[in-house]
Design a protein that fits this description.
- It is built from six helices and 14 strands.
- 20% of the residues lie in helices and 26% in strands.
- It folds into two domains: 14-64 and 128-198, 3-Layer(bba) Sandwich (FAD/NAD(P)-binding domain); 74-124 and 212-252, no CATH class.
- The longest helix has 13 residues, at 124-136.
- The radius of gyration is 21 Å and the shape is globular.
- It is of the alpha/beta class.
- α1 runs parallel beside α5 (124-136).
- The strands form five sheets. A three-stranded parallel β-sheet has the order 1-2-8, covered by helices on one side. The chain has a three-stranded antiparallel β-sheet with strand order 3-7-4.
- Bound molecules: flavin-adenine dinucleotide.
- Flavin-adenine dinucleotide is lined by residues 21-27, 44-47, 58-59, 61, 66-67, 69, 72, 148-149, 188-190.
Length: 259
C-alpha cells in the first residue's frame, strides 16, 4: 500500500532505505508511512517480540488497559484499514466515556450522557501485535527484534548521518548497520539527544510539561451478577502523596475480556 502524500523535507532524499528505531506505536506508524516513500524500511527494536499479546520490557504498561482515543483510532484506521473491526472481534469494547464510564471525582460522580464519541479499550500489547502483523505483510518492511541502537554513524566530514550502530541484545559487540544512501529515522523515547551530543552537535532543546498525574489499572474478574450498566470506572482522587509527588491520581477499570 502506498501513501500519496510526500513530506516536503524528504523530497530531495534518495529514498532507498529508511531505518526506524523502536517498534512502539510511534515506530510502527512511522514504518507504515515510510514504506510508502522508501524502497526498504528496517525497524529495529531492542526487545524480542512477544506472542499472544504478552508484555515486554520496553513497554512495561503494555498489558494494562489503554484507551485508543477517537482521533488516534481514525488515524490508525486510515493506515491499517479494518483494524477497528479486528480489535472489536478480539473482544476490545468500544466506550462512550460519558455514558459507559462511571467516573468518580473528588467533586462527586460525573453526570452520565451519550456523547457520541467512542473510543476502543485495548491493551497496548494486542494493538502492537496487530500492527506488527499487518506490517509483516508489507514486502519492503523488515523487523529486526533484539537489536538495540547504541549510536549514530556519520559519513565523511561528519555532516550527515549515514547509519546507526546497533548491538544484538546479549554479549555480542556493537556492529554497524550501514545505510549506503539516505535514511530516515524515527526515535521514540530513545537516546537521540545523547547520540547527537557524541557527534559534537548541540542536543535539541527539550521542554518538559509534567502533568503530575499518576494512575493504576488492574484486571478484575467480572462477577456473575454484574448488572452491566457500565463498562469503565475511572476513580480520581486529588492530593495523593505518591513518589514523584503526583498531584492527582486515580485508577480505572473496564469490563471486557483481557485483550
Ligand atoms: C501507564 C501508561 C498508560 C498509558 N495509557 C495510554 C492510553 O490509554 N492511551 C494512549 O493513547 N496512550 C497511553 N499512554 C501513552 C503511550 O503509551 C505513549 O504515548 C506511547 O507509548 C508512545 O509511543 P512511542 O512509540 O513513541 O514510544 P514507546 O512506547 O516508548 O516505544 C519506544 C520503543 O523503542 C524501543 N527502544 C527504545 N530505545 C531503543 C534503542 N536504543 N534501540 C532499539 N529500540 C529501542 C522500546 O523498546 C520501545 O519498543 C500510556 C502510557 C503509560 C506509561
Amino acid at each position: 500500500m502506498r501513501d500519496e502524500s510526500t513530506p516536503k523535507h524528504t523530497s530531495n532524499l534518495n529514498r532507498r532505505h529508511a531505518v526506524v528505531v523502536g517498534a512502539g506505536i510511534g515506530g510502527l506508524l512511522a514504518g507504515r508511512v515510510l514504506a510508502g516513500h522508501f524502497g526498504r524500511v528496517t525497524i529495529l527494536e531492542r526487545d524480542a517480540f512477544p506472542h499472544d499479546a504478552a508484555g515486554r520490557k520496553g513497554v512495561p504498561q503494555g498489558r494494562h488497559l489503554h484507551s485508543l482515543v477517537t482521533r488516534g483510532g481514525e488515524i490508525l484506521e486510515r493506515y491499517f484499514p479494518g483494524l477497528d473491526a479486528e480489535l472489536a472481534a478480539a473482544g476490545c469494547p468500544a466506550l462512550d466515556q460519558a455514558w459507559d464510564a462511571r467516573t468518580d471525582t473528588p467533586a462527586g460522580r460525573l453526570p452520565r450522557f451519550r456523547s457520541g464519541i467512542a473510543m476502543r479499550a485495548v491493551s497496548r500489547s494486542l494493538l502492537e501485535e496487530r500492527l506488527r502483523d499487518r506490517l509483516e505483510e508489507e514486502p519492503n518492511i523488515r523487523f529486526r527484534e533484539g537489536h538495540e541502537v547504541v549510536g549514530l554513524v556519520t559519513g565523511t566530514g561528519g555532516s550527515a548521518v549515514v547509519g546507526v550502530r546497533r548491538r544484538r541484545r546479549g554479549p555480542t559487540e556493537a556492529e554497524r548497520l550501514s545505510l549506503p544512501t539516505s535514511w530516515w529515522m524515527r526515535v521514540g523515547r530513545v537516546r537521540a539527544p545523547r547520540w547527537l551530543g557524541e557527534l559534537g552537535y548541540d542536543a535539541p532543546e527539550e521542554e518538559v510539561v509534567d502533568a503530575r498525574l499518576g494512575y493504576a489499572t488492574r484486571w478484575f474478574k467480572v462477577p456473575e451478577d454484574f448488572s452491566g450498566e457500565w463498562k469503565g470506572w475511572p476513580y480520581c482522587r486529588a492530593g495523593w502523596k505518591t513518589p514523584g509527588a503526583a498531584r492527582s491520581a486515580g485508577s480505572r477499570a473496564t469490563c471486557g475480556r483481557p485483550a
